[in-house]
Amino acid sequence: GAGVSQSPSNKVTEKGKDVELRCDPISGHTALYWYRQSLGQGLEFLIYFQGNSAPDKSGLPSDRFSAERTGGSVSTLTIQRTQQEDSAVYLCASSLSWSTRGEAFFGQGTRLTVV
Amino acid sequence: AQSVAQPEDQVNVAEGNPLTVKCTYSVSGNPYLFWYVQYPNRGLQFLLKYITGDNLVKGSYGFEAEFNKSQTSFHLKKPSALVSDSALYFCAVRDDSSYKLIFGSGTRLLVRP
Asked: Which of B44, B60, B110 is the best mutation test for A, with the most CBs of A within 10 A?
């Protein structure tokens, strides 16, 4: 596709349920990022992938959060037993594969609301 | 460890006046620096980046940024602000040895007519 695609665009879930957020990066981008943005606030780094591996998982807020990437392409961010404080916009981005010089391109985000 | 600081939560400027949005950074290696803009209910859009070479970098919509290694800063500037520039601006840094990209807390720019 032309850009980074995230689905769903909006998700409302009940407290305690599990949710899966999906990210389709730009074709050929091996670097993929997940960020969390609370209402009008900054971007909180969650995790990034180089290919299918995640060298740095230090940003994941708790063990309820996990992410995987398969085939060097699609990534899913899973939040188990959701809590109200998980409500935020989850942003995915991807970056050119050949160099760390490339800028990251962002998707439109998934707005998660936990009720 | 990488870090980025945007010391101003909000910058107010009159239309037609120059604007500056501040950013300082910390990395262990050579920095790659980026500016992004976010309009309401929109994703982040890339504005410009510094990788190497000239310290003054020009980007989209008339924006530019100046890299200052001694002050570890990468301030965003525009000679003449437009009301349509009003948005949330983010500075980001990556160490040249890693893909990890860290963002600042953001600065809200308000340009009044």
From this structure: B44
Q: What residues are paired with A90 via a beta bridge?
A: A36, A110
Condensed to tens digits (0 to 9), the pLDDT of residues B22-66 reads 999 999 888 999 999 999 877 899 999 999 889 999 999 999 999
Q: Do B103 and A103 touch (CB under 8 A)?
A: no
Answer whether B98 touches A (CB < 8 Å). yes
Residues of A2-32 as b/e, b for ≥16 C-beta within 10 angstroms? eebbbeeeebebeeeeebebebbbbeebbbb
Residues 8-67 (B) with a CB less than 8 A from some CB of A:
32, 34, 36, 42-46, 49, 51
State pLDDT tens for residues B62-93. 999 999 999 999 999 999 999 999 999 999 99
What is the rounded distance in angstroms from the CA atom of residue B39 to the CA atom of residue B44? 8
Contact call for B46 and A105, based on CB within 8 A: yes
Q: How many CB atoms lie within 10 A of CB B15?
A: 14
Q: How confident is the model at residue A100 (pLDDT cuts 50, 70, 90)?
A: low
Q: Are the Cβ atoms of A100 and B43 closer than 8 angstroms?
A: no
CB A113 within 8 A of CB A72: no
| pLDDT tens digits along A71-86 | 889 999 999 999 999 9
Handedness of CA A76, A77, A79, A84 (dihedral sign): negative
